[in-house]
Request: fold
Amino acid sequence: MDATRIKESVKEKYGEIANQSKEQNQSSCCGAGGCSTVDYAVFSENYSELAGYVPDADLGLGCGIPTAFALINKGDTVVDLGSGAGNDCFVARALTGENGKVIGIDMTEAMIEKARNNAEKLNFNNIEFRFGDIENIPVSANRADVVISNCVLNLVPDKQKAFQEIFRVLKPNGHFSISDVVLVGNLPEYLKEASEMYVGCVSGALQKTDYLNLINEAGFVNLKVQKEKLITLPDDILSDYLSPLQIENYKNCGVGIYSITVYAEKPLSNSCCTPGSDCC
Reply:
């Protein structure tokens, strides 16, 4: 699919998800439509014990808990990319406190509406949800102390531009913590070509080395993988796209699908060679 079709597919599917319950999403592939009946724990993490957790905002769509690794301090401004119904934003608010600011960005109108309703019910005045594209984040430069994102950048067609935008909106010495899906080895073509698997967070994923290289190329420093977990796709997902023989070959081909949480910092000062510095 080209970039336009990918975004249309993602918006359509996540618009549907916004109106589903967490239980409905948990019976699907990364919350993206009923492609599996297995426990959704193959991707998701349990938020229920975290401070700030709002059950109505938890649609079961993540592949990690970036706030647990994001080193958020009281008073910080936090930007959440692909904020959905606000799950990670509400947890971030508990960490940044009433004197901090949390800005959620999402390109699905139904998600923005759901998140705003959740915030209004709780009378939270320091959380804001903005409609926007991660390839063109509607936040001014040098605004955020911390950027977080949870299982979303794999859905973005131009991931290089996304990381450049994250660099732009972060303050010097700011940092991000992002949970995402990456690959080690090549997926079978049938999985790569399936739009359902794209919005299900798998076929849109990059090779792990390519993903980390994009972060370095965007100008970030002190890059580290904070958590890594191997994801096993159940047979009832794979059987929608592969024959029994192809499934067996896939399992033995050495391909790994991983959930990772990765951290990096924006340097205190830009060099002339830093992408987007406009000084050359």
